User: Fold this.
Amino acid sequence: MTHHLLDYATRIREQGFRLTPQRQLILDAICEGDQHVTFEEICRRVQAKSSAINQATVYRTLEFLSKLHLVTTAEISGDKVYEIATETPHHHLVCRSCGAVESLADSFLSELSARLRQEYHFKTELSHLVITGVCAKCGGDNG
Amino acid sequence: MTHHLLDYATRIREQGFRLTPQRQLILDAICEGDQHVTFEEICRRVQAKSSAINQATVYRTLEFLSKLHLVTTAEISGDKVYEIATETPHHHLVCRSCGAVESLADSFLSELSARLRQEYHFKTELSHLVITGVCAKCGGDNG
DNA sequence: TTCGTTATTGCAGTTTTTTGCAATAAGGTA
DNA sequence: TACCTTATTGCAAAAAACTGCAATAACGAA
Assistant:
């Protein structure tokens, strides 16, 4: 379990929402998944623990958690995936060829953000960017 | 009409595929839309000209055109949108607050690409990146 | 121009995602 | 602890997205 439940409980309640067993289970399911969990995977994990949870609830809960920035979502090679939001954001390099996913520190984008702020007065909110391309293995290291 | 139909015809046929009236109409519909056309909008435009075109065909054609890199697709504030692929790629700044969309030249990302290539041996293929944040108008120019 | 191959379409499902609403239960208050 | 308000859930039905397959038609070859 990589999330601190009390923390989430507080953040949910602070905004006048409620922490339900369903929401806890869904948060757990995302945490237990090894980064980038699909809807299908979340359902499977949740229903393994409590088979009575409705799919509609899972859909609504994921949207809810996204809105509260407790989970982030991204589309990786056609699949919508979910991940627990971390304190410092990070991003992903996705290989178009083999599908490998590598993490990328947010600091890589600080230069770009600074430039956009200066030249466009645009404040980026890059919570979870997905950059596609060809990885070292697939493209040859000397590309 | 911003696309050159002959060009597209050639590019489709070169790969052993066929240029059908349906595909032409769908390409036209995307061109005529003012950048970032939704599925719904495409259907409306296509069926205004030829009401007999099936929605399933539109779904399949959009996927087909994306695979051939004749159109690009992106998710802008929750909506999947389509756009004719341009010779030199460009990207978009989307304001989370007011929804405004601004174009961003590909050159803005060349530094990042260079770094990723050097440090990760990762060759980016940034055909249509969407960067969310807060625009000058909504965030104040001095942010 | 005609013919044949086979990519593409339309149709009619099937699956996935979303929605409305009554019943339930979280969590503040007394 | 018991009660009350109303956010949340489950259900069932609707809408949206996707598929399999037989019929059609694009387009290269003769």
About this structure: Residues 16-18, 20, 22-23, 52-54, 56-57, 60-61, 64 of chain A lie near DNA strand D (CB under 10 Å from a C1'). Chain A is about 45% helix and 20% strand. The two ends of chain A are 39 Å apart (CA to CA).
